[in-house]
Amino acid sequence: MNIEGLNGSTSGDVQISIAMSGFTFSWEEKTKTTTKNEVKTVQYYYIITAYHPMTVITRDANGLAVAEYNIPALDQPMTQNTRMYSSKGSLEKYWKTGKNSFLESMDKKLMDRNVDIISAHLNDMHGKPQTKRSAKIITVKDKKVDYSEYSWAFEKAFAGYHSILSSPEEAKTNLSEAVKIWEEALKEVDPDNKKARINKKVAAATHFNCAEAYCWLNDYSKALYHMTKIKTYDVKKYEKQIASLKAFIDDHKARYEANN
Questions:
Q1: 60: Cβ contacts below 8 Å, ≥ 6 apart
Q2: What angle do CA 10, 12, 14 make, to 5 degrees?
Q3: Whole-prediction pTM value?
Q4: What pLDDT does residue 4 have?
């Protein structure tokens, strides 16, 4: 089990143990009837319902329990069907000889599932996982209209996003310069004129770029301002993207405020 962002230690400062309550199961006989050319066929099988409850306990260096996690998902059963047989006798014969291997396999699946649940829970509570995310930068091009500043803003934003982890201050500088270019272009927006250089489609794209950039600059009020402006232009192609970006900005803000 791995908790991302934390290094393993041999000193025993903290130990995480899993208390297993044991594998239990029950089975129920079922039948499946099919009809083909007016001939009915009955097949017999068992539905196996299995449980393997677990509790996670965190202990300190002295072995004292610091925290105990009862994760409801660990108590959920797993169900699995046996193969189907043409008679009850054949099914009973199979179960008599194959029961142990069937249940051992099911127990392993349950344990693997529960360990994955525990790992996800511990990472959520204590880990620092890295999550990849693609930042979208929209640029504008037209053979008849000069949008050269958008190309320059794209280069600045691209460099900024790629240096967020390695050079935060450099990233901030590049993103700030990109935003300055986009906001300067927005000064000439003419949403009611389709032929305007900065019409409502270009404006919506520009506000989208600004919202993303301001999020990474930790200026959430301006990020949300630009999000709101996108909606006023009613450009439908951005509806889903706006919802996704809004959720990301809210999450980014919550993390920033919790850690700063």
A1: 13, 14, 66
A2: 125
A3: 0.59
A4: 80
Q: How many CB atoms lie within 10 A of CB 231?
A: 13
Judge whether residue 7 has pLDDT over 70. Answer: no
Alpha-carbon span 13 to 63, nearest angstrom: 9
Q: How far is CA 179 from CA 12, 129, 133, 168, in A?
A: 49, 29, 20, 16
Rounded Cα distance, 193 and 10, in Å = 68
Rounded to whole angstroms, the Cα distance separating 21 from 18 reads: 10
At 232 the three-state DSSP class reads helix
Do 176 and 217 meet the contact criterion of CB atoms below 8 Å apart? yes
Distance CA 238, CA 153 (A): 20
Query: Could you tell me if 219 and 183 are in contact, meaning their C-beta atoms sit under 8 angstroms apart?
Result: no
User: Residue 61 contacts by C-beta under 8 Å, 6 or more apart in sequence?
Assistant: 11, 12, 13, 14
Residue 10 confidence (pLDDT) = 57
- Judge whether 204 and 149 are in contact, CB under 8 Å: no
Query: In this model, does residue 244 exceed pLDDT 90?
Result: no
Strand 65-69 with 24-36, pairing: unpaired
How many helices and strands, by DSSP H and E, does the chain display? Answer: 6, 6
